[in-house]
Amino acid sequence: MIELVEVRKIYHQGLPDETVAVGGVTLTIAANSVTVLRGPSGSGKTSLLSLIGGMARPTSGRVWVAGREITSLPERFLTAVRRNTFGFVFQHSNLVRGITTLENVMLPAYPLGGSRASLEARAEGLLEQLGLSHRARARAEWLSGGEAQRAAVARALINEPQVIVADEPTAHLDSKASRELMGILAGLRTRGKTIVIASHDPVVYEGAAVDRVIGIRDGRLDGDGR
Amino acid sequence: MILHPGILALLAGAFAVAGLMVLASWHAVELLARWDLASGSPRQLALERRTYLISAVVGLVLAFQVASLFLFVFTADGLSSMFAGAMCAAGALLANRYGYPALLLGLGNFVLAGLWLVLNHADNLGYDYPLVRRKHGFLLVLAPLLLVEAALRTRYFMELDPEVITSCCGSLFSRGGRTVGASLAALPALPTAIAFYGSVFGAAGAGLAFLRWPRAAAVPLGLLSAFSLVAGLAGLVSYVSPYVYELPTHRCPFCLLQGAYGGIGYLLYGTLLPGAVTGIGAPMLSPFRGFPSLAGPLPLFQRRLAVTSSVLLAVFGVISAWLVTTSHLVQ
Amino acid sequence: MRALLERHRAVLDFALSSLGRRKGKNAALLAVYALVVFCLASVVLFTQALRREAHVLLRDAPELVVQRLTAGRHDLLPREWLDAMAGLRGVSSVRGRLWGYLYDPLTRANYTLMGVQGVAPGQIAIGPGVASVTGAAEGDRLSLRGPGGDYEAFTVREVLSSDAALVSADLVLMDETKLRSFFSIASGLYTDAAVSVANEREVLTVAGKVSRLLPGARAIPRAEMLRTYDSIFDWRSGLALLAFAGAVLAFTIVAWEKASGLSAEERREIGILKAIGWETSDVLALRLWEGAITSLSGFAVGMLLAYAHVFLFRAALLAPVLRGWSVLAPDLGLVPYVDPYQVVSLFFLTVVPYSAATLVPSWRAATVDPEAVMRT
Question: What CA–CA distance (Å, rounded) separates C336 from C345?
Fold first, then answer.
């Protein structure tokens, strides 16, 4: 599904504060699986995740998504591919404050020009699956941490992407909420989705549904568990 | 210079246009020099981002140009009361030697601007910026023309002198003179009518033919549309307008816009001009059908343009014919 | 097509909510915009309404006014001239007019005295400006100082209606014979002649004939008078607008500043939008819609306030500037009149600079890098 070949990411190249965030990673992520990138903070897992999800371009190396090379795509097309293929969940839920949960979930689909009514129906369906129907009309800033992350997952699913990318999704959640969230993410696998999570939380990488754990340290791959 | 709100608005607008076009041109030059789609380097990314700015700038400028063309004619019309002998814009524009050139160039820029917008939209249909070089090259041709037009307009307004005695459309567009207007008016009636309806409905028909036979009908559509623009404007002056005014000697392209005639001029110009531009635009894109990123969306866009052109030109022709036949004037 | 409309509708929706989320900043910008439009629109609406009043009132003026000039200065014209002009082809009637200016040292105002039929010798009809400055009302006695220095008393028969105040404010109408004796003008001499020409297209021809026939005659067509009025009003309004040019420029700079200064919250929001799948062009559309909403509502509010100011409050703030320095400035209840052409011009004067100023900042905002959001 996703293939990285000799991918490097260097920030501030040529300047005194040059940093090698990812140094020569080759990696294949199978479709319909749950993969966890495990490593301490500063290990480069967030950068690697950006590269996997098409949010950043590698300094060198190539990235294939669903058989299509995205490394040298023009930005216009890259955004279109990213929009249709990936759904993102961040550390902080990053919901837009001041609008309702429902509107937040619908937000990624606004530029696609679908009918408003069907979009709302889809969003409400997703919130129901995630147990958030009762919070649909609540303002985003009133949600608890766990609720907000679940809303973020719903948002990531609105355009029916094939891959869900999550960066430290449980970082600010208590253990109960973390387990709930992991259950949801793992459950998505049964719907044919590919899940990639970066985390150093044991609740995540020791979860039963995880197919593969890849260790990362100092921008390079460690061992390969399971 | 006459201090008049309409003039101030047009001058402020001309100034803004000039500034924005210089900005856009500067970016366009840099883009043409450094564009390298395959590189993926930070500079290339910055250039790709720049294209959004240039499109937005030019879009704003062109929207203003379209509106300001009408505002320009209207202002000239309003100023006509200040010039002895002028009774509508026709005379006011003649008050100094910059009036008509400014108007004609404005008309030409309208067509070019419309074509640029068509090209821009086509470029956005492809995921790999297929027409980016052509688009920005075209921009570098259009920009100086817009600047010249802004300069001409400014010069026209600044050199307006109410003491000048000018002519009214009655004498400008009457037979027997030696001006272009007079030649227009002196065109023999029947051949003019044939050329008028022939080109307008011919172009409309070619637009429909384009839907079925895009390759064969491309060149005829483009030529007929261009011709319909010229014949349509000439025909409006010499053939249609006397019927609207119900006076055989009153041939004027501007009085059509006045309220006394129901502002029918807006409908006429509003169908003829966009109709001709879309009719030229559709076949203009044909050479690019072979581009891989455009192979899918481009033919559909061309069809839309062709249909739009046919409909607009047909409406124009029908309204003109209606005006002629229901007029109380019998010639 | 449908998708395009839906897309814009959704983006517009979000733009509205976006503006609402930063009420303070946007309200300030809207207020400034509305203020600028208010100033410009007040000037334009006022002068256009005055101009239209002048046109309406002058409709009944004679087609041609003939004066006599001696050594370049205005002189009285003799009865023979009236007879000569009456004989010209195209002239339907000639009427000699007798009028003059009078300075009143008590009120320090200039009155226009006009001789008419139908007013008894000891009576006068005064214009509303005269009435207000002298405090005279119908039935009162009013004294006027003749050129010789003697005062003569008149009974005010009526105060002229203020509907025609634009032209009648400083008028004093009295019996023609009485006026002659007041100013010591010999009989057979007139101040000017009002000439009626039946066919409007012939006015210039007749004017030419008059000039050739009577040496020293100056014939002023009505169209010329209207043109002069128009020029003055346009000039004055143009001048006032230029005075506001500074305001428009400052406003443009403010707009640029506001659009450029992205707060941390705004930057975060745009980053989120880009991260969840909005393209640069979508975010640009969002910013442009925000600008459009601000500018259109600012324009509408400014326009409405200007309309109320000029037509409901009688242009209280502007009138002194635009009416001139006359002591007898008429208090005008202007007929509400909005010329669409002027509205369009104003729209151009404000919306175009605003759009131009906010274009580049909007684009800069739209190119915020989503990766930055990942790193928070």
Answer: 18
- Residue A166: burial class (beta carbons within 10 Å; 0-12, 13-18, 19+): buried
**Contact assessment for residue C282 and residue C6, using Cβ atoms and an 8 Å cutoff:** no
For residue A35 the two structure tokens come to 């993969």
- One-letter amino acid of C288: L
- Please, are residues A210 and A36 in contact by the beta-carbon 8 Å criterion? yes
- The tens place of each residue's pLDDT in chain A, 226 residues long, gives 888 888 888 887 777 888 888 888 888 888 888 888 888 877 888 888 888 888 888 888 888 888 888 887 777 778 778 888 899 888 887 888 888 999 999 999 988 878 888 999 999 998 988 888 898 898 888 888 888 888 999 999 998 899 999 988 888 888 888 888 888 888 888 888 899 998 888 888 888 888 888 888 888 887 654 4
Give all chains having 3 or more CB-to-CB distances under 8 Å with chain C.
A, B
Q: Which residue has the tokens 């509303």?
A: C128
Domains and CATH numbers, chain C: 2-58+230-374 (no CATH), 64-221 (2.40.40.20)
B-contacting residues of A 58-77, CB under 8 Å?
71-77
For chain A, how long is the longest CA-to-CA vector? Answer: 53
Are the beta carbons of B40 and A72 separated by less than 8 Å?
yes
Q: Which residues contact C47 (CB under 8 A, 6 or more apart)?
A: C233, C234, C236, C237, C240, C322
**CA torsion angle C347 C352 C354 C355 (round to 10):** 120
Residue A66 Cα distances to A82, A84, A190, C182, angstroms: 11, 12, 19, 106
ipTM value of the model? 0.85
What is the least distance, in Å, from the CA of C348 to any CA of chain B? 6
H or E element, residue C67: strand C64-70
DSSP character for C220? E
Six-digit token pair at B227? 């011709």
Closest residue in chain A to residue C269, using alpha carbons only: A96
CA-closest candidate to residue A198, choices A8, A7, A52, A39: A39
Inter-residue contact C32 to C164 (CB < 8 Å): no
Tokens of C63: 């087609």
Domains defined along chain A, listed by start: 2-225 (3.40.50.300)
